[in-house]
Amino acid sequence: MSQEKKYISYAESGVNIDANDQMVDRISSSVKSTFGPRVMDLKNGFAGLFSLDSDSKLFKKNYDHPVLVACTDGVGTKILIAQQMKKFDTVGIDLVAMSVNDMLVQGADPLFFLDYLAVNKLDPENVAVMVESIAEGCRQANCSLIGGETAEMPDIYGQDEFDMAGFAVGVVEKDRIITGEKVRQGDIIIGLGSNGVHSNGFSLARTICFKQQKLNVTDKIDSLNGRAIGDALLDPTKIYVRPVVKLLEDFADTRPVHGMAHITGGGLVGNIPRVLPSDCDASIDKNAWQVPPIFDYLAQAGPVEESEMFRVFNMGIGFTLIVDPAHADAVMQNLSESGENVYRIGEIVGGSGKVILK
Amino acid sequence: MSQEKKYISYAESGVNIDANDQMVDRISSSVKSTFGPRVMDLKNGFAGLFSLDSDSKLFKKNYDHPVLVACTDGVGTKILIAQQMKKFDTVGIDLVAMSVNDMLVQGADPLFFLDYLAVNKLDPENVAVMVESIAEGCRQANCSLIGGETAEMPDIYGQDEFDMAGFAVGVVEKDRIITGEKVRQGDIIIGLGSNGVHSNGFSLARTICFKQQKLNVTDKIDSLNGRAIGDALLDPTKIYVRPVVKLLEDFADTRPVHGMAHITGGGLVGNIPRVLPSDCDASIDKNAWQVPPIFDYLAQAGPVEESEMFRVFNMGIGFTLIVDPAHADAVMQNLSESGENVYRIGEIVGGSGKVILK
C-alpha cells in the first residue's frame, strides 16, 4: 500500500487549545485581584498553594487548634436564567456565596475558593466574564481564588449550556466552632435581609414564570418596578462574610452568637432547625420584616400557598443568627453598622426542634 | 370568584425530595468509611470539618509552616464512556485521582476531598455506586470525603447524562514544597506505570473508537485480550499517593526528589516541562518501558502519529519523579517495594525547558 495514511490529531477531535490559552490570559488579572499575601503563586504549578502561616504576622489570628472547614455547591438552575439572559457577570457571585455563607455558619473565616466550570464551547469572552464574577464573589468574601478548571465538553453540554461548581475552604479555632449546641430558650433570632431569591427554589420559580405564566426572561413586571423578570431572578446572592466575621471578632470575649443558619433550599423552616437543640423551637414573627416584592409576585403568579413559599424561598431573610438576649441589641447594632438590613425576627422557645411561623 | 385556586408546589416543579433522602441514607456508610480521627462529624452541619491539629498526636507530622494545597478537576468526557457502559463504579476513582495526583506533585499529603455531582435524574442506586467509587478513591488516596453536593438538573443534563467535579485539599510543610527549582543536569527521570488512558485524551480516543471505527462501547478488541473497548477505556486512573508520600517520608533527610509531574493532558512532553528549569531539557528514552496495548490500538485505529500520541496520552507513564542521581537506585527500589511498576526513563540534560523523546 503506497497510499498515504491520513492521520487524525487531537485538534480535529474538537478540543480548542488556542481558545483555552486565550482564556487563561484573560482571566489572569481577575484571579490575581483576589490574592492576599498568603497565596503562594507557583508558576506552572499543579495546585493552588495557600500558606496557613499560623505563627506569621500575615495571619491576623493565631490558631491553637485550627479546624479546616470545607463546602461545595453549585447554583442550581439559576444557571439557566443566566444562559437565557446571556448575562454571566453575577452567577459567579452566587457560586461563591453558596459555599462561603455555609461555612460562615460554623464560625469559619473563608480562606480560599476554587471553581469548576463546564461549558459546551469555550468562548474566552464569556468565560472571562464568569470568572471575573467569581473573583468579585471572592473579593466580597475576602478569600482568594487559588484554582479552577474550565472543561469544554460539547457532548455533555448542549449549545450555550454550562454548569459551575464551587469549593471553599476556611478555618476556625476548634473551641470557637459554632454548632447551635448553646442555643437555649429566650435566645433572640436575628435575620439579615436577602437580595432576592438568591440561589434556591429556581425549579419552582422557573415553573411559575416560564411554564405557568409563559413569560420570556426579558418580560418586564410592573410590581418589580418594571424590571425584567430575568434580571430580578438573577440578583446575586448576598455574601454575609464580612459583617459576620467582624461581628464574631468584635464579640470574641462574650461570644453571644449561639447558632447561625444560611437560608437556602428549605427556607427558614428547613434551615433553622439544623442548629436547634431537640427541646427548643424557633418562634418566628413573619411580620417582623417586609417580604420583598419578588416573593409576592411568585406567590400570586403561581399561585403558591404561603406555607409552601416559606418552605422553598428565603422570603427576604438570607441568614439568621441566634444570640444571647443580653447582647441582642448590641449585636443588631454591630451588624447594622456593617451595612446590613437587620431584623429581630423571633425567639427561641421550648419545643421539639422546629420552626413556628406566627 | 368563588373558584378554588389551584396552588402549585415545589414537588410539582420536578424536585424529588424523597429520592434525595433515600440517596443520603445509602451513601452514608461509603462516606464514613473514609473518615479518619481528624474528621469532626457534625450532625446537620452546613460544612465539612477537618481538624488540622498541628500539635496533637493524631497528626503524624508536625508542621511549623503548614501550606494548604488545593486542586480541582473533573474527569472530562470519560464520563460519557461510563454513561454508555452504565458502569459507575470506577469514575469516582478517576475523579479523586485527577486532583490528588496533582497535589502530590507539590509534595503535599492529601487531607480531604469533596465532590459535586450533577445528574439528570437522581437515581439513588446509581448515585450510591458513584459515591462509593469516590469513597474508594479517597481510601486509596488516604483522604477523607468530608462533603459533597448532588444536584438534580433535568433542564441542563439530558437523560442519563451527568457530570462530576472534585476538589482536594492537602498540606505540606513550607520548606518541603517541591517546585522543580532544584532540578539540574544529570538528574534521573523515573516513571511510574499508568493503568491505561487514565482521564485525559478522551475526545481523541472517542473520535477514534466511536466515530472513525464506529465501534460500540461493548465491542470486544482482540489486541486488548478480547476486552470490550469501553471496559478498557474505563480502567481507573492510578492514584500515586501512598507510594509517593511514603517515599518522601522515607527520604525526608536526603530529599532526593527535585521535581515531579502528573502526566495528564499534554502527556510527558506537555507536563514534565512544568517543573523544568529554563536551562534544562528532559531527555526521555521511549524504549525504556513497554507502551500498553490500548495505546497501540488507538495509534493504529486512528491512525495517530506517534508524536501526537505522546502529546495527548500518558503512553504508559502516569507519574514522573526527577531525582538526584546518587539516590536514583534507592528511590526506584523504594517505589518498587510499594508495588509500583518503576522505570528509569531518562535524564536531565542541558537545554531550554523542553522534553526530547529518543
From TrEMBL, chains A, B:
Ranges where the PurM-like C-terminal domain occurs: 184-355
An example Gene Ontology molecular-function term: ATP binding
Keyword Nucleotide-binding belongs to the record: yes
Catalytic activity: 2-formamido-N(1)-(5-O-phospho-beta-D-ribosyl)acetamidine + ATP = 5-amino-1-(5-phospho-beta-D-ribosyl)imidazole + ADP + phosphate + H(+)
Keywords annotated in UniProt: ATP-binding, Cytoplasm, Ligase, Nucleotide-binding, Purine biosynthesis
Entries under Pfam families matching the protein: AIRS, AIRS_C
UniProt pathway: Purine metabolism; IMP biosynthesis via de novo pathway; 5-amino-1-(5-phospho-D-ribosyl)imidazole from N(2)-formyl-N(1)-(5-phospho-D-ribosyl)glycinamide: step 2/2
Main location: cytoplasm
Keyword Nucleus: no
Subcellular location per the Swiss-Prot or TrEMBL entry: Cytoplasm
One GO term (biological process): 'de novo' IMP biosynthetic process
GO CC field: cytosol
UniProt EC number: 6.3.3.1
Start and end residues of each PurM-like N-terminal domain: 67-172
Listed NCBIfam families: purM
Sequence similarity: Belongs to the AIR synthase family.
Protein name (Swiss-Prot/TrEMBL): Phosphoribosylformylglycinamidine cyclo-ligase
Taxonomic lineage: Bacteria, Pseudomonadati, Planctomycetota, Phycisphaerae, Sedimentisphaerales
Gene name, Swiss-Prot/TrEMBL: purM
